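B., you asked whether I could sanity-check this one before it goes into the benchmark set. Here's the sequence:
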Amino acid sequence: MESWISRIFLKAVACLLVFGAATGYAENSADNSADNSVESINSAPIIEPFVMREDLKEADIDTENFEVGIYIGQLSVEELTAITLVGTSLTFHATEDLFIEANYAVGTLEETSSASNVTNVNSFTDDKLVMYNLSLGFNLFPGEVFIGEDWAFNSALYVIGGAGVTQFNGKDEFTVNFGVGYRFIITDWLAYHIDFRDHIFSREVSQATKKSQNFDFHTGVTFFF
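And here's what the prediction gave me:
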């Protein structure tokens, strides 16, 4: 009887030992798997995003502050005719937005039948018209112009105004000018301009002195140096 009880007891102890060993092995296996997973994550290579960046060619104003230009346009002389005007300009960029511009332009007056009703208008002592002035400009809306996907050009819409002298019919007339312009920078040393201005000066019409509104539209190129 005692031997039978002993055998049962031994079997129970053996089962407990086997169960404990199996449980410990399972726990060790789980811990090792977790450690291996962490090591795998830590040792995995870091994949960084690859972004394709396109080079954008952008023209900007050169580091120099001076700009010299040539232009051609039309000057509509009040009660006379439109004449071809050829000129040159010299600009100093005081700041990014503020600049000072000097202009010199010449044109030739032509007698027209449309002005024949105005007394003494066609009797010119000098058919050459000369204008020179000094103006102050302000870049009102600087921006960019995009052509395609690879080119960007800086540009600016500016206002300008100043004073000078107009040599008209043998007389020097004090002249005030104001207007707007558009600058399109092609490269860091070359720009294209479009300008519209009103030149106001006094002259004699029908034996009376009056303020004359003379509209000037011209276009040209400038060079930075």
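One thing to flag: The longest strand covers residues 128-147. Otherwise nothing jumped out at me.
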